[in-house]
Predict the 3D structure of the following.
Amino acid sequence: MIYLDSGATSFHKPPAVYWAVAQAMKTCANPGRGGYRAAMEASKTIYDCREAAGGLFRCLPEQVVLTTSCTHGLNIAIRSLVKPGSKVAVSGFEHNAVTRPLHALGTRIQVGGQMLFDWEDTLSKFEEALKGAEAAVFTHVSNVFGYILPIEEMAALCRDRGIPFILDAAQSAGSLPVNLEALGADFIAMPGHKGLLGPQGTGLLLCRGEAAPLLFGGTGSASRQQEMPQDLPDRLEPGTLNVPGFAGLKAGLDYLNRTGVERIHAREHRQLLRCVRGLERLGMRVFAGDHQASTVSFLPGMDCEEAAQKLGEWGIAVRAGLHCAPYAHNSAGTLETGTVRVSFGIDASERQTDAFLRAASKLPRFRK
């Protein structure tokens, strides 16, 4: 199988990740719940994961909250920062992991910037959307189109106006630089199982601002009091942590720290460009431009879901549909059709790209 759906999850992970998960299952008990060897090994595993994340994202280990997913982290961040019924600025490329929690709070969403690969439009419209806003949430990279938003400039707009903000780094963490302190974000949420190369069921929430618990329960600390502890990360981590999952995530983070996210991005981006050129030659409608990461969407001359199924039958794994991001599709004018999405991972290669293009050549051309 040629796997080109890394935007959904990384499938081919470094061997150390699999080994770390298995070792943790054999050697780790419950962290923070005992002084015996297996419990202490679990606590060390969890702390080592926080420390590796802190090194990659330039923050303190105690600012790294371990979650079950990026969606989990975004829900914590949004519930901490956003008041019910308030005005919130977002980009035109948000995932349902952002918009559904905002909708559930009854917020008035102000959308800024809906032109693909156009930083000038994104910034000018986002600045307008910030008028009257009490908070902002925006993605780093569109999960549908790979559009890298100008987050440094968007963050500066928020800081200049004293508006707290959350960054969704679901598609950027592990392949683009993410720096909590430099951005000045209150929260940055990310999954463990995508660019960070960890197992599913893991995620990180980087916290610079005050955080409100989403779940309540035991933490192994401050057990006499009935309120959740005030200090991070205990405040946001009730219950038993996924120790094997975070052992695997730590191994993924180690790989990234050794390899460098710049090298990974360069490898993936080379194949993105090769893929874009090939799809254009095949007569597909391709969504590509400046400021694009390792993901590209296209329209063939047939139903997108059927095209992805055909590609799957030919041994090519891609994703089709709306990708849980109707805001992005509305911005691009593809809300009715969806797209076929190709997303490269750490093993991106010419062999993968050429195999995909050979299969895609069997699909009908796009007809305007």
In short: Residues 2-11+260-360 form a domain with the Aspartate Aminotransferase, domain 1 fold (CATH 3.90.1150.10).
